[in-house]
Amino acid sequence: MKKGCFVLAYLAWGFAVGGQSLRASDASPVFRAAIDLVALNVVVTDGQQKLVHGLVSNNFTVLEDGVPQDVSFFAAAEVPLDLSILLDASASMTDKMRTAQEAAVGFAMRLHSSDRIAVVTIRDTVKTVHALDADLDGAVSAIRQTTPGGGTALYNALYMSMREMSTQRRGNGEVRRQAIAVLTDGDDTSSLVNFDDVMDVAKRSGIAIYTITLKSGASKSIDPGAKRPMSDSDFAMKALALETGARSFFPADISELAGVYTTIAQELSNQYSIGYASKNGRQDGAYRRVRVQVDQAGARTRTRSGYVAARPVRRVALQ
Q1: Binning pLDDT at 50, 70 and 90, where does residue 68 land?
Q2: pLDDT tens-digit readout, 179-193
C-alpha cells in the first residue's frame, strides 16, 4: 500500500453524547479514517459454533478476488455500533406486538454507551420513530409506543434504512460498525421497491442485516418431520443475511424471539473489525468477492460476501 494511502488515527476515549440511559460506563476508542476503506465485520466460530475470542491481526488473511490484501485497521470488540431495529407493525402483528416490543427492548438494553440506535416501524408506510442517536431511553420509549395496523412495506423499510445509515457514515469520518435487525411475520405487501433493489443497496452499503421471520401460524406439513418448503420471502431474508455476513432466523413462535435477539446481541459484541485499502485501484464499479481466513484449526469466519467498487467521479465543466 502506498504511503499516505490510508491514515487511521486514534483520537480519544469518550462517551457518545446525548444518551441519558443507565448503560454501563464503558468508554470506547474513537477512530477516524482519512479515506474510504473496505470495512469488514468478521464473526469467527469454532467447530461447535461457539464464538472464538482473543485473535489478533496476524491471525487473519483477507482475500479480494483471490488476491491477499494488507490489513490496515484491526479491532476486536472495540469499534462502536450503529444499530437500526426494524419492527413489523402491520395488522398481523396485533396479537404478538407486546411480546415483540419487550424482546426488542431487551435487545436495545444490551448496547454499549458508545453505540447508537434507531427504531423504524414497518406498516403500509415506513416511519423512523427514533432517529439514530445514543439516547437509549428515547429508543425504548419509541419501541413501546409502537401500534400495529395496515400492511407490510418490508423492502421499502430495508431500502430506506440502509440508505439513511450509509448517509450517516459518509457524513461522519468516524469508523463505526453498522447493523440492521429486522423482524417480520410475513411477506412484503406494500413496497414500491423490490428485493433486487434491496440486495443491490446491501452489496454497496456494507451493513450487516440480521433477519428474523416469525413462522407462528404457518400451515403445517402433513408429515410433522418434513421441512416446510421455503417461501420466496423466506429465501429473500436468508439471502440478504448471507450476503451481508449476518444470520437469518425463523422462530416458530413469538416466545423464541427474546432468545434470537440475545444471540444477535452476543454476536455483535464479539466481532472483529478489519479494514483494508484494496490493491485493485480500478474504479470500475465491479463487484469484488471478499473472503477472510484465520489460522486456527476448525475455525470458520463469516463476513459480507463482497463489495461494489467505486466508479470515477464525473466532473461537468461549467460554461
Answers
A1: very high
A2: 999 999 989 999 999
Q: How far is residue 103's CA from residue 189's CA, in Å, rounded to a whole number?
A: 25
Task: Render pLDDT for 106-158 as a digit per residue (tens, 0 to 9).
Answer: 999 999 999 999 999 999 999 999 999 999 999 999 999 999 999 999 999 99
The tally of CA atoms less than 13 A away on the side-chain side of residue 21 is 27
**Cell representation of residue 241:** 443475511
Residues of the chain with CATH 3.40.50.410: 81-268
Count of beta carbons in the 10 Å neighbourhood of residue 172: 11
Identify which of 126, 244, 252, 122 has the alpha carbon closest to the alpha carbon of residue 187: 122
Calculated CA dihedral for residues 262, 265, 269, 273, nearest 10 degrees: 140
Q: How far apart are CA 281 and CA 278, in angstroms?
A: 7
Q: Please state which CATH class domain 81-268 belongs to.
A: alpha beta
